[in-house]
Amino acid sequence: MEENFNMVAKTLFGFEELLANELTQLGAQHVKKGVRNVAFSGDKGFMYKANLALRTAVKILKPIHSFTVNSEKDLYDKIYAMDWSPYLKPTGTLAVDATIHSDLFSHSLYIAQKTKDAIVDKFRDTDGQRPNVDLKFPDLKINVHIDRRQCTISLDSSGDSLHKRGYKTATNIAPINEVLAAGMIMLSGWDGQLDFMDPMCGSGTMLIEAAMIACNIPPNLMRKEFAFERWQDWDVELFEKIEESLLGKTRDFHHKIIGYDKAPSAVAKAKENVKNAQLEDFIEVKHEDFFKTQKGGDQKLHMVFNPPYGERLNLDMESFYANIGDTLKQNYPDTDAWFITSNLDALKHVGLRPSRKIHLYNAKLEARLVKYVMYEGSKKGKYMK
């Protein structure tokens, strides 16, 4: 039996609850929410499973040592004193990144450099050889986290951020992060029991994440590599068993997922990404201007989208957002419409009162995820108070 160990899943602001629920449903032990992270425990197979299956995690870290630190020399000495041989060969490669919340240390790059020096010096002194730095494909990726005087050294089991799912080869000028898209769809309550629409679909991220949620497809099956595949204890048989078990839990989907975009280039990109994700059976992408469309059929519609904020596209934001409100009110009865924006001034021009507002960030932009409930037959716009 593999032994359980502690891990930390990092996430985006506002997704801690979602991630804690995902971990609990996957079978994690001792789940505890933090800020932009959730701590938990599990065995090696569970670490593989978490990397493959979590939609709202950006990293899975495995802490291996924790200590108080009072100076840069103290940090160097304590890292030098650690036994690195179970994790890295003297001929191997490493990369170090650091996050710091401390008045004692200010430069994360310098702390990462100091950590690297301590590790390579230790190997040189004990083995006569030293590992090299490889920032792109290291055998071991190490994370240093200093909070005031407390330092935690972790192994990064993910490597590249888990938002890099592997299906996206084509993007547009303002692509949405895959983890942010998945979290928004989960916050919206989407469960695959209705038709889904993204009326400004760009490169198709929202559509693909929605389809994977509806079909219970693990989001990271298509990734080329996880960092743990280069670890000394990498168990390919166990990994394949976990992968197979997750694939056995996918489910059928009997509704439509529709994407519109008025830019032909975006439609082409979205179609390419949908094809890469092998989800053409579930997703239809059309060249349409949302403001000239109306809802088809009598079924309730679930809509989630990421309209322009005016950050990178030069538009008259006030009239653009007024158009969103008018189109929803006049042409989309019996629809729950959710969208994210960081343009809080333009949001006032939608002309509808949101029934929910959730505080999130899109990259570094402070944003709101808002929900508008359009009632059936509401040509006059009887929206929720």
Strand-helix topology:
Blueprint: E1 5-10, H1 16-26, E2 29-33, E3 37-42, H2 44-53, E4 59-68, H3 72-81, E5 93-101, H4 108-127, E6 132-133, E7 140-147, E8 150-156, H5 178-187, E9 195-198, H6 205-215, H7 236-247, E10 257-261, H8 264-276, E11 283-287, E12 301-305, H9 317-331, E13 335-341, H10 344-347, E14 356-362, E15 365-374
Parallel strand pairs: 5-6, 5-7, 9-10, 9-12, 10-11, 12-13
Antiparallel strand pairs: 1-3, 1-4, 2-3, 4-8, 7-8, 13-15, 14-15
Task: Identify the notable features of this structure and list them briefly.
transferase, 15 strands, 8-stranded mixed beta sheet, 7-stranded mixed beta sheet, SAM-dependent_MTases_sf, RlmKL-like_Mtase_CS, THUMP_dom, 385 residues, alpha/beta, 10 helices
Descriptive report:
The chain is an alpha/beta fold. It is 30% helix and 25% strand. It is built from 10 helices and 15 strands. It has helices at residues 16-26, 44-53, 72-81, 108-127, 178-187, 205-215, 236-247, 264-276, 317-331, 344-347, and strands at 5-10, 29-33, 37-42, 59-68, 93-101, 132-133, 140-147, 150-156, 195-198, 257-261, 283-287, 301-305, 335-341, 356-362, 365-374. Strands 2-3-1-4-8-7-5-6 form an 8-stranded mixed sheet. A hairpin with a 3-residue loop joins strand 2 and strand 3. The chain starts with a strand and ends in an 11-residue tail after the last strand.
